[in-house]
UniProtKB/TrEMBL annotation:
PANTHER family: MARR-FAMILY TRANSCRIPTIONAL REGULATOR, TRANSCRIPTIONAL REGULATOR, MARR FAMILY
Pfam family, one: MarR_2
GO BP term (any one): response to stress
UniProt entry tagged with the keyword rRNA-binding: no
GO MF terms held by the record: DNA binding; DNA-binding transcription factor activity
Domain of life per record: Bacteria
Keyword Cell division: no
UniProtKB keywords: DNA-binding
Record-annotated HTH marR-type domain positions: 8-144
Protein name per UniProt: DNA-binding MarR family transcriptional regulator
InterPro entries named among the record's database cross-references: ArsR-like_HTH (IPR011991), HTH_MarR-typ (IPR000835), MarR/SlyA-like (IPR039422), WH-like_DNA-bd_sf (IPR036388), WH_DNA-bd_sf (IPR036390)
Length: 170
């Protein structure tokens, strides 16, 4: 799958394949359905974002989810009807609303993260504890460096390099 991405960096090609696979709404929906999950994929995604950054304005949730305001409105209405979220007036802008998780929503969101933990456990089931630990440490380091680099890129753009750059083999 990684060979489908024509990056010079094998690492970037592998990460791209993984991100596209795991962020695929179709795959997520299939996994949730075959696991007997009562909450659909868009609701799971909204719960994950709300857990990470609540309270949120609907427009911020739409941006985080990469979808439109009308779609988020439908998702939030379903979650609200199920007692998982509440809408409140934004104290900083009374024309706007904020979406927060209710206790029932927090429980459902925790379950979403539990499913993620189960998924990664299945992926790593055949790995040794030493390999899991080493990979975890490297992934944490990579994530921290990538977040810092993204902030720099946001401000200054990409630095152009004449060399080909690192690959997974480097």
């Amino acid at each position: 799958m990684a060979h489908d991405f024509p990056y010079r960096s094998e690492l970037l090609a592998s990460l791209s394949a993984l991100i596209l696979l795991w962020e695929s709404p179709g795959l997520q929906s299939e996994i949730l359905t075959s696991s007997g999950e009562p909450i659909d994929q868009p609701a799971h995604q909204a719960l994950r974002h709300l857990t990470a950054g609540q309270p949120m304005r609907p427009s911020d949730l739409a941006q985080a989810m990469g979808t439109g305001a009308s779609n988020v409105s439908k998702i939030v209405k379903r979650l609200e009807a199920e007692g998982m979220v509440a809408r409140d007036r934004d104290p900083e802008d009374t024309r706007s609303t904020l979406i927060t998780l209710t206790p029932q929503g927090e429980s459902a969101a925790r379950h979403v993260y539990d499913l993620g933990d189960e998924m990664i456990a299945q992926v790593l089931a055949t790995w040794s504890p030493r390999d899991v630990s080493r990979f975890t440490e490297l992934a944490k380091r990579f994530s921290a460096d990538a977040i810092a680099a993204a902030e720099e890129m946001r401000r200054k753009g990409l630095k152009r390099s004449s060399r080909e750059g690192p690959t997974l083999a480097d």
